[in-house]
Description:
Elements: H1 2-16, H2 22-51, E1 63-67, E2 101-105, H3 115-121, E3 126-131, H4 133-149, E4 155-157, E5 163-167, E6 172-178, E7 184-188, E8 191-195, H5 200-206, E9 211-215, E10 231-234, E11 237-239, H6 244-250
Parallel strand pairs: 3-6, 3-9, 8-10
Antiparallel strand pairs: 1-2, 4-5, 5-6, 7-8, 10-11
Helix pairs in contact: 1-2, 3-4
2-acetamido-2-deoxy-beta-D-glucopyranose (NAG) binds next to loops.
Amino acid sequence: xxxxxxxxxxxxxxxxxxxxxxxxxxxLIVVILVIFSWFSLNEAKNHLEHKKQPLNQCNIFKGxxxxxxxxxxxxxxxxPEIRHExxxxxxxxxxxxxxxxxxQPDDCDIPRFDGVDFLTRMRGKKxxxxxxxxxxxxxxxxxxxxxxxxxxxxxIQATGGVQTWIFLDYNxxxxxxxxxxLVDIDKEQIGRVMKLDxxxxxxxxxxxxxxxxxxxxxxxxxxxPKQPWDYIQEGNIIQKDMDRMVAFExx
Length: 251
Ligand SMILES: *[C@@H]1O[C@H](CO)[C@@H](O)[C@H](O)[C@H]1NC(C)=O
């Protein structure tokens, strides 16, 4: 603001001097260039200072996807846990452009993912993703990221029950618990009842985890044959259907 003001003053001083003079024109051009560089310098400076906000004061969710040539951080075709339909590289997709983006908060920089640091901090912990296929994507992505960071360490897939991979050298387990709506869907005499107030089914398993990552949304507006419930229950009231947004907010 200060720079803008002083340059405007400078500009008008020059403009009031005698006209019809080539040097005069040159001066004007120089002044205009100076004003522009002041603007852009200021903008760049503000931008930098702006970004230096400490992480704990920064809204990391406000941002954009930024191109990063150093990405991707793993080769999906080398990952032990990835569904075929997500493994584009293995099945011949030629471009990698879509893999080269990272999240950039507007007001700060977040540290680059460091798999060894992550595993070290999480030693002895159970991490569990709960939700729909978006959670599955996150779950597989995390396993691939970690595997790429420590490719020769001992990794095993737990048998039985929910899908789990264990990084033995760090004693870190990562689990996927599928629950499209998070809440229970129980088979009863009238049919499949989605219970907005109940997480008995998953709740007991979730308690075993040290870190829980929940996600749901996609299925709330699903209707027709793909809808995996017949009735919806809130408290003692069982209905054939209700406003889906209201149901989502109450669940
Ligand atoms: C692994 O972590 C669990 C807690 O999740 C703990 O009970 C167990 O003793 C640890 N095992 C080893 C070998 O450190």
